[in-house]
Structures are given as structure tokens and as C-alpha cells.
Amino acid sequence: MSERRPGRLGVGVVGAGRVGAVLGSALRAAGHAVVGVSAISEASRERAAALLPGVPVIEVAQVVERAELVLLTVPDDALAPLVDGIAQVGGWQPGQIVVHTSGRQGVAVLAPALRSGAIPLAIHPAMSFTGTSLDLARLEGTTFAVTAPAAVLPIGQALVVEVGGEPVVVDEAARPLYDAALAHGADHLVTLVAQVAQALEAAGVERPGRMLAPLLSAALDGATRAADTRVEGEGPGAIAALGGAVPRGDAQTLRAHVDALAAFAAGSGATDAPTSYADLARASVRRGLAAHRLDAPAARALLDALAANGGPGVDTPPDR
């Protein structure tokens, strides 16, 4: 490991994927020296060349040996074997900062490094990466989940601030729920947009993405702003941004949607679209009821409409 300089660390990047190359570049821009990067695939090597020019592409063992801060940016299922494998060959060093970027895992996975005297940090940026220089600007203001032993938590928070992010402490036990929540939002949003685009194409819209962009951007902006408010008994108040048939209590429109999507599914084979619509509409009704945006009779009428044409059964909401 190189001699440490005040305020400046030798950073080693293990895995020049979309996340690793970008974060390595961001740390370099913050004044740290990237001393090595491992890159297996041709795409990773090209990414390293573009975002970390001049940084030697070397073996993992060499990266770990040279670095004061080791950034592990590998897939979740590869993380534990990697950390354990480095420990088995005596690679981890006392005082070395070891950071992984898995959303699901906290610092327990870094236990083999900790036993060698390393400083374990779990730092996850809550954003999607393209693996290009465009991501560097997007890091500014991005929230990073930081998990670490209390004594070294400030180190993780400082690293996040250095790359322009906003650190938020997430407990070790809460990491799986945190990761599931982000995946439910981001991954399933992509699936939802795919369903909607297919339905719009069937309705004769040639460029569904262009039609959806302003609508969904406005809806997302409203929902995320409302999510920072609180609804008594319900937590974040994102449901306050809900528009359309549900908050109006318009059961007739909801039933028309059910009928139209059922016909679309029959003709296209996209049977997931009406099911998703019904599931999400039922969730909207229940949350609208809990947030007092709907009364019980209106909620019951909406749920009955969603069960039309042999649709899935629904729970009757309690009277209020």
C-alpha cells in the first residue's frame, strides 16, 4: 500500500463496470489518485480507458495491494466470494478502506476484510448509471445510502460529499428493504412504461415515448415531492399527487379502462398489462381511502369496477 498523503488516497477500482468507472473518475476529480483498475471484458476496458485515462489496468490482487481505498463494484452475487478470496491470500491490509456499492448488502459481507484490520463501508448511490461521463454531473445531489460501524461512519459520509452526493445513513438490517424499495420503484417503472407504450402503439400512437415523457415526468416530479410530506398513519404522502379516475371516485371510467385493457390483451397477448393496471389501481384505492381522499362507498365502487369482466377479486374496504 502506498504512503498515505493527507486528504488524498490511492484508490483502486475492482470492476470497471458502469458504476466503478464513474465513481473512480469522480474520486479522481475530487483529488484522489486512482492507482489501478481491474477490467475483464472488452467493454470494461474501453470504459476504463474513457473514464480513467492513464490508470493501469491490472489484476485484482495488484489493485488491492496498491490501494489505500479499494472500491468493490462487482455484481451482488460476486461480492462475498471476492472479499473472501482476497482474505484467503492475505490481500487485505490494516487501515485500508474497503468500500462496496451493493444496495442489498451492508458491511457484514466485508467481515473478512475487517478481520484483517480494514475499514468496511457500504456506500450505494441511488441512481441508474450509463457508464459514461454524463453520470458524473448526475452524481451531484444524488442520495447515497451509507452503512458502516459508528466509529468510521464519518469516513463514508465524507467520501459521498466529496463526489457531490448526499449521504443518508441506512442500518445494516434495513439494507434488503431499502434495496427492494428502490428496485420496486425503478425496475418496475421501466416495466410499466413498456406496457403503456405497447398499449399506446395499439391505439395508433406512433411515438409513445414522446407522448409519455412530459406526462410521466410531471407525475414523477409531483409524486416525489409529495413523498417528502407525511400522511398520518400512512407515512410518506406521495398518494397526494395521484390524479385520474381514482381520486375522483370515477368508477365508470375505471371500468372502461378495465374493458379496454382486457380487449387489448386478448388481441396482443399482453396479459400482464390489465393485471398490472388492476393491481396498482387497487393499491391506489386503498391508499386513497387511508389518506381520506376517498370515502368507503366510493372506494367500494372503484374496487367493484376493477373486478368487472371476471377480473381478480378484491377486498371490501372497511367503513369509516
Automatic annotation (TrEMBL):
Residues 3-125 form the Putative oxidoreductase/dehydrogenase Rossmann-like domain. It comes from the Bacteria. Residues 143-282 form the DUF2520 domain. Transmembrane segments: none annotated. Coiled coil: none annotated. PANTHER family: CONSERVED HYPOTHETICAL ALANINE AND LEUCINE RICH PROTEIN (PTHR40459:SF1). This is Putative short-subunit dehydrogenase-like oxidoreductase (DUF2520 family). It comes from Xylanimonas ulmi. The lineage of its organism: Bacteria, Bacillati, Actinomycetota, Actinomycetes, Micrococcales.
